[in-house]
Input
Amino acid sequence: MQRQYETVFIVTPVLSEAQMKEAVNKFVSFLTEHGAEIVHTENWGLRKLAYPIQKKTTGFYNLIEFKAEPSLVDKLETEYRRDERIIRFLTFKMDKHAIEYAQKKRMQKESAKKMED
Output
């Protein structure tokens, strides 16, 4: 049974913009290759970390929302651990309230963008 998940990961800040995008695309394609359906991706950009990790004080934050079998989460997190560009990650199962909330937030962002245009 497929469930909806949200994963946030932090990519090391020493990468160029192109290298960072390549790292993100690697995980998006990993998910799709293993049967996941990508619901939403978001790049939060370079942000200050709450505390230094591996002597770094900033990192590129990225979010991927996807639907997949529960067994895929372990495989994804193993891939995060193997990639030296990822300094932190968190994946969690979204309940129906979290899914509704995420959809509302996306709708608000889209309508705000339309208002700007």
About this structure: The chain has one domain: 3-116. The chain has a mean pLDDT of 92. Strands lie at 3-11, 37-53, 56-68, 86-93.
